[in-house]
Specification:
The structure holds 2 protein chains of 2 kinds. Chain A is of the alpha/beta class. Chain A has 6 helices and 10 strands. Chain B has 2 domains: 176 residues, no CATH class; 223 residues, no CATH class. Classes of the chains: A alpha/beta, B alpha+beta. At the A-B interface, helix 1, helix 2 and helix 3 of A face helix 1, helix 10, helix 11 and helix 14 of B. Chain B: This is ABC transporter permease.
């Protein structure tokens, strides 16, 4: 599913960072562990096609990402990837439902009302469907962000520090929810984190070390 | 979800900002629309009112006043001219047609014009009901006179001396309504037509009744003596040619050839008691005087539009800073750069199009209000219910303005480094 080989990324043509080789199979979950500055967000962005111009090879869903044009990469992301970011950033101008509809709209896919209902119900926030995103709780916002990431049944879910700001109970809930949702959608879950608490849930781990 | 919905939601998320931008632009557009409507209609009406009339001959005074009084029926007469002097000019070989006008009375503020059937033909006046005036003291009235003055066919009324309401009433003779004209949206709607003789009859009585008094209005001073000789005057066939006692207010002339324009004004003006004024020239002069005010208002409108453009640009630019993360998220969800650029351009265009639509509506509404409140605008034949192609140009222009305001923010969005934004730097 994902194959990384001899990957090096250069920041602004100066600082170079190299990553270990690894392979993640379909449906397999993986942790990208490392302290801050170890390049785990960079690696996550490379895997998700948010960063290009790398040396080496990143093959995701049988596709060498550097070979895709900018717009092909956009389309590829829209179809294959689901992102969950640390801040659960939702579009505040839109309500919950429209935030979910935005994903297929932007990816150029059809909007499936049933799928929205299904995902919202699965995550226990069906009652918030028409609520403004500014009026829901932090936990609910995180669930909306997860819902948005899995709306289009991506092959890979990429999460950047999804639990670092949460207490132990919430952390456990979120990581379990993510794993369940990933499993239900037959997606690989890849989490970039420095949160040691998650180690117990996902056995496959890529350890990154600061290189400067 | 559609791009319009997305844009609309972004605009609604900042209602006050959006409102301010739309209103600013709307004000500028409204002023331009108002001027456009007013100016265009005024010019059209002037062209319509002045059509077929090459020269107006009347008593000495302000040439502009002569035109305003005898063509647009808004100013007061400059005085009277002797019928025989007018006749001499009317008989000139350069003149195709000469129409006499005798003014002096009004009813409820509506002017009574003593003239002949040629006048009706010249302006292509059309009857709604009844017939044209023929005999003495018969009148055919404009549509506004009928509705506002509450007159119908068969009604009789006494005219008042002068051009405004509340003048001395000529009770001895009564006019009789024989016809009502179709609305024409010109000054005709506010006029009462009769023959020249009727105006003389009114003032004959007036002159006799107030002989001892001093006549303050010289132009109203008509004397009438029955002419026995019957070589009919070219202007008023009921009186003999070369009549030296009767007077008219003015005469509308139509040249036979362009030579008339060269020779006639000079010829008329060289006669001591007469004055010739060209409607085309005088209205052009009037517009150049009004033009200064119009230009200032226009400049003001453009300043408003410039400020609103600046405001829209700043709003888009600032909101884009706040939305950097939004845009990056959208990119991560598969949106292409062009899609986001298009969204931002559309946001600018939606703002300006809404602003200009509101402005156009506002311009028409203000004019509608004006025509309702100020009677004079109605009398000048100005209405809010006309639309000009220039309004489409305004709309297209504002679309372009929106595009222009949004281009820099859109470029900024195009260049956004999504990875950097999402990494939280």
């Amino acid at each position: 599913m994902i194959e990384v080989k001899g990957l090096t990324y250069t920041y602004n043509g100066q600082k170079a960072i190299s990553f270990p080789d690894f392979i993640i199979n379909q449906g397999e979950h993986c942790l990208l562990l490392g302290s801050s500055g170890s390049g785990k967000t960079t690696l996550l962005h490379l895997l998700g096609g948010l960063l290009r111009n790398y040396q080496g090879s990143v093959i995701t869903a049988e596709q060498e990402l550097s070979r895709l044009s900018e717009s092909a990469l956009d389309a590829f992301r829209g179809k294959q990837m689901g992102f969950i970011f640390q801040k659960n950033h939702l579009i505040t101008a839109l309500n919950v439902e429209d935030n979910l509809k935005l994903a297929p709209y932007l990816a150029g896919a059809n909007i499936d009302e049933k799928r929205i209902e299904e995902v919202l119900t699965r995550l226990g926030i069906a009652s918030k469907r028409t609520a403004k995103v500014t009026e829901i709780s932090q936990g609910q916002a995180q669930r909306v962000a997860i819902a948005r990431a899995v709306m289009h049944k991506p092959a890979i879910i990429l999460a950047d520090e999804p639990t670092s700001a949460l207490d132990d109970t919430s952390c456990e809930q979120v990581i379990q929810l993510l794993m369940e949702v990933a499993k239900e959608n037959k997606a690989s879950l890849i989490v970039a984190t420095h949160d040691q608490r998650i180690k117990n849930y996902i056995s496959k781990q890529v350890i990154l070390t600061p290189q400067y | 979800m559609s791009v319009i919905k997305l844009v609309w939601n972004y605009l609604l998320a900042k209602p006050l900002n959006t409102f301010l931008n739309i209103v600013l632009l709307a004000l500028g557009i409204a002023v331009i629309t108002l001027l456009l409507l007013f100016n265009n209609q005024l010019q059209e009406n002037i062209a319509r009112n002045g059509r077929g009339i090459d020269l107006v001959v009347g008593a000495k005074g302000s040439p502009l006043q002569l035109i305003l009084c005898n063509i647009f029926h808004i100013d007061f007469p400059t005085g009277n001219i002797k019928l025989n002097e007018a006749e001499r000019i009317a008989k000139n070989r350069l003149i195709k047609q000469a129409i006499p006008l005798a003014l002096g009375d009004s009813y409820n503020g509506f002017r009574i014009i003593g003239t002949n059937q040629q006048y009706a033909d010249l302006y292509e006046m059309q009857l709604q009901e009844g017939v044209w005036w023929k005999k003495n003291l018969e009148v055919t009235i404009g549509s506004n006179v009928a509705t506002i003055g509450k007159l119908k066919i068969g009604d009789a009324f006494a005219s008042a001396h002068g051009m405004t309401e509340g003048g001395h009433s000529h009770d001895a003779h009564q006019f009789k309504v024989v016809g009502i004209m179709k609305p024409s949206n010109t000054v005709i709607d506010n006029l009462i037509f009769t023959n020249v003789e009727s105006v003389w009859i009114m003032h004959e009585e007036h002159a006799e009744g107030e002989e001892a008094d001093h006549h303050h209005d010289d132009e109203e001073d008509h004397h009438h003596e029955v002419a026995a000789d019957f070589k009919p005057s070219v202007l008023v066939p009921s009186v003999s040619a070369n009549d030296s006692t009767h007077e008219i207010t003015a005469m509308l002339l139509d040249y036979r050839s362009p030579m008339g324009a060269v020779q006639m004004p000079r010829m008329v003006n060289s006669q001591s008691s007469l004055q010739a004024a060209s409607p085309a020239f005088e209205t052009a002069r009037l517009f150049s005087i009004l033009g200064v005010g119009v230009d200032i208002l226009m400049a003001f409108a453009y300043v408003l539009i410039f400020i609103s453009a600046l405001s829209i640009f700043i709003a888009l630019y600032n909101s884009l800073k706040e939305r950097r993360y939004d845009l990056a998220i959208m990119r991560s969800m598969g949106a292409s750069r062009l899609k986001l650029v298009f969204t931002i351009l559309l946001e600018g265009m939606v703002l300006t199009v809404l602003g200009s639509l509101l402005g156009l509506a506002l311009g028409h509404c203000v004019l509608a209000l004006m025509t309702n409140l100020v009677e004079e605008t109605q009398k000048a034949g100005i209405t809010a219910l006309v639309f000009y192609t220039e309004e489409w140009i305004l709309l297209a222009g504002s679309l372009l303005l929106g595009l222009l305001c949004a281009i820099i923010p859109a470029l900024q969005a195009y260049r956004t480094d999504i990875s950097k934004v999402l990494a939280g730097n």
